[in-house]
Amino acid sequence: MADVVTPGGLRELIPAPHPDVAPLPPATARPCGVRTLRGVPYAEPAGVRPLELDLWLPADAPGAARPLVLFVHGGAWRRGRRDDMGPHTRAWEPGPFERLAAAGIAVACVDYRLSGEALFPAQLDDLRAALRWLTLRAAEVGVDPERVVVWGESAGGHLASLLALARGGPRLAGAVVWYGPADLTTPRPPFDPADPATPEALLLGAAPADVPERAVAASPSRQAHADAPPFFVVHGEADTMVAHTHGRDLAAALRAAGAPVELRTVPGADHGWHGADGTQVREIFDASLGFVRRVG
Question: Is Hydrolase one of the keywords (predicted)?
Answer without folding.
Answer: yes
